[in-house]
Design goal:
It is a single chain. By secondary structure, the chain is an all-alpha fold. Helix content is about 55%, strand content about 0%. It contains 14 helices and no strands. It has helices at about 1-10, 25-45, 50-55, 70-85, 85-90, 95-105, 115-135, 140-150, 160-170, 200-205, 210-220, 225-240, 270-300, 310-315. The longest helix is centred in the last third of the chain and has 30 residues, at about 270-300. It starts with a helix and ends with a helix.
Length: about 325
């Protein structure tokens, strides 16, 4: 319904934002730019299968050296639509599936039991509306406000999207805001008792956080949290809720357990670290024993080398 209302505003206001331009030449140039923006957006929104279907049905030439990829389909289709013109391009086909595919990519739903001419008009308006929205998006918010003032349109918002929508549909950008809630306080500081029927604003206005904490400690009420939480807890206690407000009923805090990183062996139920240390000591003892055995063997098998004696001693 919103889309239909925007489309009607776009049509009834003389193509929406083009009321800003009085010169026919500028209006045509602006129309061309807006249609180009809308065509680019629509071709980006089309999925690859739909893009390929439209190009094949409309005999869009891709070129001899170009591969049938999404960027190529998108570029060639946009060039063809800009060269022929949006309305002429859509009127050149008699297949409602092609027009419906482009219309859905523009964010609109086709009218039921509509003729091809009605579908073409709906598609052109939807693409122009999309292109005008994209065109105004390039400008800053202060400039859009100046345009709203020049057009004599009312606005009470700083939202860029809302201003663009108002400019395109030539409508006021006024949002009704709910009146602020009137806060009433008690004329004097009343004691924290159930019979006084104190409201949240009364307790928050007349009592500080330190005073509320002292009162809670005397009554056995939990004192954790911010002032907002403490005030709500006091109101709950005055209302008779002792289960969720008293300290004795509060759940104990979960303390972090000391994690003992012990992984036991399934065979002898011995920690792996202890087993590893034991194994290391056993290996060290075995190494020492092996070294002693090797030294003993070397000592027994050691041969005495002959000593070179002087020549005189040899003769004797």
């Amino acid at each position: 319904r919103r889309r239909k209302a925007r489309r009607e505003c776009w049509t009834n206001s003389g193509f929406g934002c083009f009321w800003l331009v009085s010169d026919n030449l500028l209006k045509r140039n602006w129309m061309t730019r807006v249609e180009a923006e809308g065509i680019q957006q629509v071709t980006c929104n089309l999925k690859f299968a739909a893009l390929k279907f439209v190009c094949e049905q409309m005999d869009v030439a891709l070129g001899d050296r170009n591969k049938p990829t999404r960027p190529v389909f998108q570029k060639r289709l946009a060039e063809r639509m800009n060269e022929e013109g949006l309305a002429k391009f859509l009127n050149s086909t008699q297949l409602p599936q092609v027009i419906t595919t482009i219309l859905e990519a523009a964010g609109e739903f086709p009218i039921k039991d509509a003729s091809i001419e009605d579908l073409v008009n709906q598609t052109v308006l939807a693409i122009q509306f999309q292109g005008a929205s994209n065109f105004f998006f390039y400008f800053e918010t202060p400039f859009l406000r100046d345009l709203m003032d020049a057009a004599g349109l009312d606005y009470n918002t700083g939202s860029k999207a809302r201003l663009i929508q108002a400019l395109v549909s030539h409508d006021n950008a006024v949002t009704e805001r709910e009146p602020a809630e009137e806060i009433t306080y008690s004329s004097k500081k009343l004691s924290l008792k159930a019979k006084n029927n104190l409201s949240y604003h009364d307790i928050n206005e007349w009592y500080t956080l330190a005073e509320l904490v002292d009162w809670c400690e005397k009554k056995g009420v939990r004192t954790s949290g911010t002032k907002r939480e403490v005030v709500k807890r006091v109101m709950a206690y005055l209302g008779g809720d002792t289960e969720n407000t008293l300290k004795e009923n509060s759940k104990p805090k979960k303390t972090k357990k000391e994690v003992v990183y012990k992984s036991f062996n399934s065979r002898n139920n011995v920690p792996r670290k202890a087993k590893k240390a034991k194994k290391d000591t056993e290996d060290a003892e075995e190494d020492v024993q092996e070294e002693e055995v090797e030294v003993e063997k070397k000592r027994k098998t050691k041969k005495v080398k002959p000593v070179d004696l002087p020549q005189e001693m040899e003769v004797a």
